[in-house]
């Protein structure tokens, strides 16, 4: 029988259980995918801890790449033998093989390896919707990207630079500063030793940035608002440091008629056409070399608990994959 990581209760990494699972034939509209690689993402820890509640027991993981082994009735999006990759629900990517709605799958170009595909889909599609949909970055924009050495950060910094933006990135250590600088950041701020809001003002001549992409949350939220130019866009897309407390909307007017949004990939890719459009943009950016994807950590799938420990301890950089 195939194996998968399952959670039967919420908690620390120790609740991730390596279990045998029964896999039925794909239902109508589903495809069976045998994973060659699975992506690790910070949102996985939210599902594990219960910050984002899911019905238990449950699978976990939102991203993978592999080969289609079977399809259910009515499937037209993929066929047996296709190389595919995906990101988004339903949960269950931490598995050797799984069934998944076929409309969530994208055919992976031959030029992109399975490991790259698994490493880039959630983070890459996130960068795609952030930069091309939520706020469409234009040449000449100054942008602030928090956690610039993280998975989404490295992709977003390179992509924003390729679009002609002035890219300001924040990091938490000198090592990560060098990494961010090598991946598109024009200016790097170590927020553990510097006031990032003041540095942003200095860099932009007092004006502030057009947009802030903030996946950190509680620790950076107010400083992010203070880094924006008038009528700038605050994009809060994650909360690695904890949830953002309730916001008094009058702050947005006091700080310059700011825009604030809390987007999700699931909303931006709910329609198949939108998913395919963003996927095409991502695949083109990666295959052109404008947005290289670096897999910096690899773990055996059964060792997912250790991968979670390292992720939460901020010991990882770039993308991390789990290998079945």
TrEMBL record:
Limits of the Enoyl reductase (ER) domain: 11-322
Pfam entry (one): ADH_zinc_N
Record-linked PROSITE patterns: QOR_ZETA_CRYSTAL
Keywords: NADP, Oxidoreductase
Record's protein name: Quinone oxidoreductase
